[in-house]
Fold:
Amino acid sequence: MNTENQNAIGEDPYGLENVKKQFDQVFGNTADLAVVSVNVGQYKGLLCYLTTMTNTDFIIDHVLNDLALSEQKEPMGKEETFHLLETIHYAVLKHETLQSMDTVMDKIVLGKAAIFIDGFQKVLVLEVRTLNSRSIEEPSTQNVVRGPKEGFTESADTNMSLIRRRFNNVNLRFERFELGYKTHTAVYIAYLNGDVDEHILKQVRDKLNNSHIDSLFDSAKIEELLHSKNKGVILFPTVYNSERPDAICSHMINRRIAVLVDGSPFVLIVPSLFSDFFKSPEDEYQWSLIGAFARCLRYFAFILSLIVPALYIAVTSYHQELVPTILLTSIAAQREGIPFPASIEILLMEITFEILREAGTRMPRLVGPTISIVGALVLGEAAVQAGVVSNINVIVVSMTAISGFVAPIYTFGSKVRFFRFGMIIMASVIGLYGLVLGCCLLMVQLTRIESFGVPYVSLFSRWDKRRTT
Amino acid sequence: MRFMRIAGVIMLCCSLTIACTGCWDQTELNRSSLVTGMALEPGDHMKYKVTFEVVNALETDPNKGGKGGTPTAVFSKEGNSIAEATQKINENLERMILISHIRVIIIDERLARKGINQFIDVLQRNRYIREDVLVLVGKGSKASDFLKTVYARGQYAGYKIQLQVETYRKVYGGIPRSHLYDVAQALLTEGRVLLLGAISITGDVEKSESLDAIKTVYPAAVVRMAGAAVFRGDKLIGFLSNEHTRMVMLASDYVNNTLFAIPGPDVNPSNPGAIAVQFYHMHSHMHVKMDGNTPKVRVVVEGDGKITSIDENIKLSTIQGFEKVEAMTRDYVNEQMLKTVSYVQKKFGVDVFGFGQHYYRYHFRKFKPFAQNWDSYFVKAEVKVDSNFTLRRPDLKTQKVMKDGIGP
Amino acid sequence: MVPSKTNAVDMFAMQLVFLLSTSIIFGTPSVVPDSWLVGIIAFFPACLFIVIYGAMLSSQKNLGLYPLLEKAWGKVVGRGFVLIYATYFLYIAARNIRDMIELIMSALLRMSPVPVLTTLFVLIIAYATLGGIQAIARFASLVLCIVLAMLFMLAVLLMFSSSIILEQMLPFLSKGIGPVVQSAFQHSIWFPYGEIIVFLVFQQELGGAKGFRRVTLYAFLSACFILSITDLIQVWTLGIEGKKYSSFALLDAARLINIANIITRMDAVIALIIIFGTLLKCSVFLFACAEGLTHIFKGQQGKYNFPLALLAGAFSILVTRNSAEHMIEGLKYVIYTLHIPLQLVVPLLTLLLLRIRYRKGEST
Structure:
């Protein structure tokens, strides 16, 4: 075999010149490609890697030194040399042996180094990736007072290690997928083998395999992909996301599948149910009654954030008989001289609030406080003083806003507000009847949603508790 | 998916259509006025005259202060039915009226004597009028005058009167329950006639209409509770005093809380001492049976209370002391009750106590033959009162604070 | 998709809300003084329905109502019956919508045009039916919680505003037991209990004869209990006489709530219960009707829902001119011409035919 290859050196794709040429062809003249001539034992070789993706110090310390095989005095064949490198020198490094040029290129893109031996048809690919990422920090979105302070980072490897460290269990599985035909982003699903539902696992795999997206920079895109679209217009998220490894792991215990995307600190959980969005990881670290109370409070706040403005409109401009007399006179006194009907007034303030909120999140951090000053003082106080809106209106809108922020998962709260506007419109057209119809629609919608075949809302059957008993 | 889209489109169309045309039922608060009181009296030209007390909301808000105007304004309209007059109120008033917050409906004495049945229906049928609105009979003055009495705190007469009636009933029991549903109940049920609360005015109404009346310590005119209005069928036949009303209410178990001032043991006409006994939990029940054509009624009154004041020196550190006061209370209440019963029997001859109702409920078959003419049997009723009072404690002192005397 | 079977509790919730929804306010006619007793008496003959329907299901390996009809009566006649049943369900749905709209128009709104209210309502019904019977069942369990909570709240609030006077239910049986029993047989067993026949349509998805018997028995028991309690509450608050003249007695009872002049006028809560309940009931009927049409005309599932819903809405407006006509039609004509034949006679005959045509062991 060896002799045959050496004879055909001119056309040999593994000849060093050819390899260089191929690299030129594929990578063009990208500045971060290093193709270095080295000696491998007594043969000539090439070491190829991307400087931006690899740790150069690591290559010098651990790869180059061993490559010359200086302690080996006796001449040996290429096969033996390769074998020696593979089994002895680089045995502790994660490595693989490849035979096709195309796959080698792909590996180099992922931050690996390839070692070619002149004319030899096997290529040794070494894991020399740099861990040049953000260190583990406290998560910024889901804060807890009590509980672990670690948060996921942008590196999927770190994230996987964060999960693995919490499960000292052989059943934990990671499966790798590659998504995005331009970015080839690594996507991992993690689950506890045996606990998880095979049906659901298959669906997740199918969805990931059959995706046709070109790029993937954040897990939000996967979230969209996994979102079950077959059951109507959905304004409720069916995919949970978290920056907290403890939250993700506690869901995985409950038969869920985690989806990690390289480059995103938000790890997804499927299937997710309505009640998941009202749980904070902290609930489990406290006395159970406090956790339960907090959860009830969140549900209550959720309902409030949906119906309070609509209820206000319905009651003050349609069903005055429902308000206690004294309260009604007080409201009436405030509404005296306000130019708009209650519904317009509420809509006006709600939209103002949405604009403020948008501005607040987009503003640079230093300018942030300005927004709140302008919002609170100028819009709130001055509008009331000027008699454009009434006091009670400001109370209603701010109460709604605060309740809207109680949801532990940001995406949940941000999606739900669309229902609020629907309710406001319904209530301002046909009063309480419209509000109740709105609630009906909401409930019908909620009960119709299924997340991977699991009912989104189900009062009397808990899907995730079924098998543990 | 397709159906979802269609549904979405339909929903959108509907909401657009509605948004463009709709809001049929909308009544904006700043385009309408609250009504807190309503007075009904015979009209000068038409059958009824309806008077509304309309709130000027801005003046009631202590924070905004208003412009120093009156918190309420009174508007009257005449019509051949109550509903007509109500609808016509906008001849004088610029805003829609919200009648769902009426607190009192005051019926003029003259109107009540002609019968209330012909106009009560509109009040019962209308869903905006609360079932627990007070229906009172205005004694002695025109019904609309009651809505014109204002004083420093009673911002609007309707609210003031309602609160007054409720508080009075709670602490003393001298006025009957007279909500709108009580009217319906009394008119529908067997063996009981309608009793409504009565109110009257002391003082000068003319002066009281102006805001200046608010600025004096002594209100120019005050609405006072005037016991009960007694009806036969739906027609007013007379009034019961506060004391009699209390006894009637006590017999029918509507009094919870009251105070009896019992004449002292050695009554000395020039200076009658008294013992005041306060009761917190009073209960009563009755037993009715027929002896031939005479109803035999036994009313049992029970109470739990304390001694509030004694003008005589009775030692309350002894069991005998308590027993003595209890016995006196018992005798007093029995006597008062019997007085009231015979007064009602003689003066009105209608069953205001509900003896007949009790008999109807518990002995339906036996009641049947008497149902037609119960009131004529009621007049002959023999009533026996058994009362049983327990006085628990003498408040802070065990006896009257006075020298016991040292010598023999 | 995992073929998730509806669990028994959801199923029970669906049947219970179905039984309660409109009957909680229109159920027992107040023509007899002791109407709360009517519900209790009606429960026993109503159990006969469970026996008949259960036998129908078990005779043919839990086939739904429509295939059963075809099996028993042959293709042509069977299909005729399927159509009749589908129309019957649609008609009841329309009547229920009308009931609810009557309540809304006299309790919440006054000027809004009825067609708009109805259209909005039926669109939501159609949307609810698109999710299938499982989604409806889950919706029902939510509604059940709300309804029970509201009723409980109502009772407690009435108690606190001291409106509940037990004496008012006396005199007891003033007209004897006769009218009570008669009323039970005339009205209560057909409505709401007999309407349970609609659940036969979905039995394949809902657990078959065994599950049906058990769940329906529990649902009947609870419904009987709750209806009697609400009836008693009405009598205790309004009195026998007051209840008689009220068009919506429970609504009137709720109007009496007054706690310190702050919590007053809870009649809106009742309207809310009714809207939720009617929505569920109509969804079930509409879904059954749509199933029937799909069964005959072999369309795609969900194809008929929106047109049928709009049809039901239109029917609900056109069916009668005023509330008196509506009540009389519901209490007299519907019972004799529709309820009794379709709830009792046809199922009995079907059962008989099935027994004759497919003897034991021969059924395939």
